[in-house]
């Protein structure tokens, strides 16, 4: 009996030591983290497509100290300098020219910041990610109908202010619509979907969050590793502020020598851009 007691006691002591070591490692990792910037690239690719463009571009700025996450969207028609081409063009074309690397390089030039991490998803992957968490609850901010992933018109209809449970297909339709308003409103809707996903995952507990990370890693193309995420897990156990913003600017039609014609572009406001740069570099 004494031997059994000693063995049990030793096992308990070992478990306590391991738990303390694990907690110590966790707190050390949290203490070593700074702010994090992740570029989120949504591409308009479907199976069989050889050339794609970025349909949406965002920077997720995570401020660990202030417990804030800010999503900053850049409209796809933004007129920016594309380093790989050595000229100005729509930022959506950076992906067609240079893929992920070309897009990251362009975003780095635009925001004067090195972006080490990215997440890339296409239409199909977006549907899978939303479905992997059992869908999302979202209250539309506009009334409209949109085609489905097979381009069938009017497949999904939304009413402003009426909360709905969205599966992956519906969430994709909601986030890709821009015909009734503009790309700026579409960018805001894309942020709404991401915010709803984060809220759903945050409420699923540690195992739910870990499961979602595995889904992101397996479904999307990303270089954000688990060890990096571990340093920010402290935010998952506290309330944090989630903010959203879309680039400010104005519409313009400019003659482009490269294309030999006048084209529509979105010209970002310099004051807004400088403020965004300061936010991202903080």
Plain-language structure description:
The chain is an alpha+beta fold and 282 residues long. The chain folds into 2 domains: 1-32; 33-281, LCP protein (Aminopeptidase, 3-Layer(aba) Sandwich), CATH 3.40.630.190. The chain has 8 helices and 14 strands. It has helices spanning 2-32, 93-111, 123-132, 168-176, 183-202, 205-219, 226-230, 270-281; strands at 36-43, 54-63, 68-74, 79-82, 87-90, 117-121, 136-138, 144-146, 156-158, 164-166, 221-222, 241-246, 249-256, 261-268. The strands form 5 sheets. Strands 11-6-1-2-3-12 form a 6-stranded mixed β-sheet, sandwiched between helices. Strand 4 and strand 5 (87-90) form a beta hairpin. Helix 3 crosses helix 4, helix 3 runs antiparallel to helix 6 (205-219) and helix 4 packs antiparallel against helix 5 (183-202). It is globular, with a radius of gyration of 22 Å. This is LCP family protein required for cell wall assembly. The chain crosses the membrane at residues 7-26. InterPro entries: LytR/CpsA/Psr_CW_biosynth (IPR050922), LytR_CpsA_psr (IPR004474).
How many strands, which pairing sense, and closed or not: the largest β-sheet? Answer: 6 strands, mixed
The end-to-end distance, rounded to whole angstroms, is 61 Å
Bulk shape: globular
Number of helices: 8
Radius of gyration: 22 Å
CATH superfamily of the largest domain: LCP protein
| Helix/strand order, N-terminal first | HEEEEEHEHEEEEHHHEHEEEH
Q: Mean pLDDT score, rounded?
A: 82
Content-based structural category: alpha+beta
Q: What is the CATH T-level topology of the largest domain?
A: Aminopeptidase
Uncertain runs with pLDDT below 50, 5 residues or more? 4-32
Strand segment tally: 14
Please give the oligomerization state of what you see: single chain
- Structurally, how many domains make up the residues? 2
What proportion of the residues is helical, as a percent range? 40-55%
Query: What is the level 1 CATH name of the largest domain?
Result: Alpha Beta
- What percent of residues are in strands? 25-35%
Strand order of the largest sheet: 11-6-1-2-3-12
Keywords: Membrane, Transmembrane, Transmembrane helix
Pfam families: LytR_cpsA_psr
Domain Cell envelope-related transcriptional attenuator: 53-202
Protein name: LCP family protein required for cell wall assembly
